[in-house]
Design brief:
This protein is mainly α and about 290 residues long. The chain has helices spanning about 25-50, 95-100, 100-110, 110-125, 150-170, 190-210, 210-220, 240-255, 255-280, and strands spanning about 60, 60-65, 70-75, 85, 175, 185-190, 285-290. It has nine helices and seven strands; from the N terminus they run αββββααααββααααβ. The structure holds FE2/S2 (inorganic) cluster (FES). FE2/S2 (inorganic) cluster binds near residues 151 and 213.
Length: about 290
C-alpha cells in the first residue's frame, strides 16, 4: 500500500501504468497531419514547377478550395479576382495557393484542438495524460508560443473564407456559361463536383463555427445571459434568447470540434483532389440533376 513517505521517482520516457492504447490517438494524428501537410505542400507548389498544371486548379465552374479565392491565375478565367499574374511576379511564388493558404492553415495551426493534438503527437509535450515525457519540465504556452493567441484573428479570416467558398459552391451550380457572361446565366445543374464543393463548405463551416474562440466571443464575456434583459428586470427577454440561442448552437458544434476538424481536413483535400482529377480528364464529373 502506498505510504506518504514513498519517494517519487523519475520514470523513463513513455513509462506509464495506463493499460489502454493511449498511444493510438497521437499516432493517428501524426500520420493524418503528416499526410495532409505533404499533400498540401505538393499541391501548393505544383503550379510553380508545372505551370501548365493551372488546369489542375479549376474545371469549368469548379474551383479547388486550395486556390479559392483565386486572386491571380495564368489565364483570365471566370473565377479569377484580379486577373492574370503580372509579368514581374517571381516564378518561385507563382502559385495562387501561396497567396491565400496561410489563412486557413493559421486557423488550424492555432486551433485549440489541433494544438493539443500536435503538441502530443509531434513534440511529446506532453506525451499523454499520466505518461512519462522525454523532458522533466513543462513550460506550457509561454515564450514564442504566445503567438497562439492570434487564433481569434484567424477565426475572423476563417469565417470570411466560408463566405467565399460558399460563393464558389453556388457558382458550381451553373454550367456552360458563355464567355463574358455572368455565371448565373449558365445552365442550372447539380453535378457531383457541385455536391463535393457544397459538402466541403458544410464541413468547414461546422468546424469554424464550433471554434472555442467563437464560443467565448458569443458567451464568454457574459456572466449571465438573462440578467440585463430579463423581463423581471424590465427587459423584453428577446436579446437574451437570441444570444443564448447562438451560444447553444456554437456549443453544440464545439462539443464535437475534433470530429469536425478531421472530417473537414479530409474533405478539403478530397475536394481539391476531385477538381484536379476532373480537370485533367481522369474522372468524369457526372450530372446528378439538370433543371
Ligand atoms: S478552436 Fe479550433 S478553430 Fe478555433
Amino acid at each position: 500500500m502506498a505510504s506518504g513517505d514513498e519517494v517519487l521517482t523519475q520514470r523513463r520516457f513513455g513509462e506509464t501504468e495506463r493499460t489502454d492504447n493511449w498511444w493510438s490517438h497521437p499516432l493517428v494524428v501524426l500520420i493524418g497531419l503528416s499526410l495532409f501537410v505533404v499533400y498540401g505542400l505538393f499541391r501548393t507548389v505544383y503550379p510553380v514547377f508545372v505551370p501548365e498544371a493551372q488546369a489542375g486548379i479549376y474545371h469549368e465552374s469548379l474551383l479547388s478550395p486550395f486556390y479559392s479565392p483565386l486572386l491571380f491565375a495564368e489565364e483570365p478565367v471566370t473565377h479569377v479576382v484580379f486577373g492574370t499574374f503580372p509579368e514581374w511576379w517571381p516564378q518561385l511564388v507563382r502559385s495562387p495557393a501561396i497567396l491565400i493558404l496561410w489563412a486557413p492553415l493559421g486557423l488550424r495551426l492555432t486551433c485549440y484542438y489541433y494544438r493539443k493534438a500536435y503538441y502530443r503527437a509531434f513534440f511529446q509535450d506532453p506525451t499523454a495524460c499520466a505518461v512519462s515525457e522525454p523532458r522533466d519540465d513543462y513550460a506550457g504556452e509561454t515564450g514564442l508560443l504566445r503567438f497562439q493567441n492570434v487564433h481569434r484573428y484567424f477565426l475572423y479570416l476563417g469565417i470570411l473564407f466560408i463566405v467565399m467558398l460558399s460563393f464558389e459552391a453556388i457558382r458550381a451550380l451553373f454550367w456552360n456559361v458563355e464567355a463574358g457572361q455572368p455565371f448565373w446565366t449558365g445552365d442550372l445543374q447539380v453535378r457531383v463536383g457541385t455536391l463535393v464543393l457544397m459538402l466541403n463548405v458544410f464541413l468547414l463551416a461546422g468546424y469554424t463555427f464550433g471554434c472555442h474562440s467563437l464560443r467565448y466571443l458569443i458567451g464568454g464575456n457574459r456572466r449571465c445571459f438573462s440578467c440585463p434583459n430579463n423581463p423581471h428586470n424590465g427587459g423584453d427577454g428577446r436579446a437574451i434568447s437570441r444570444r443564448y440561442g447562438l451560444w447553444k448552437g456554437v456549443t453544440k458544434l464545439n462539443v464535437n470540434h475534433a470530429t469536425w476538424a478531421w472530417f473537414s481536413l479530409f474533405m478539403v483535400a478530397f475536394a481539391d483532389f476531385y477538381v484536379w482529377m476532373v480537370s485533367i480528364g481522369v474522372w468524369p464529373d457526372y450530372t446528378v440533376i439538370a433543371f
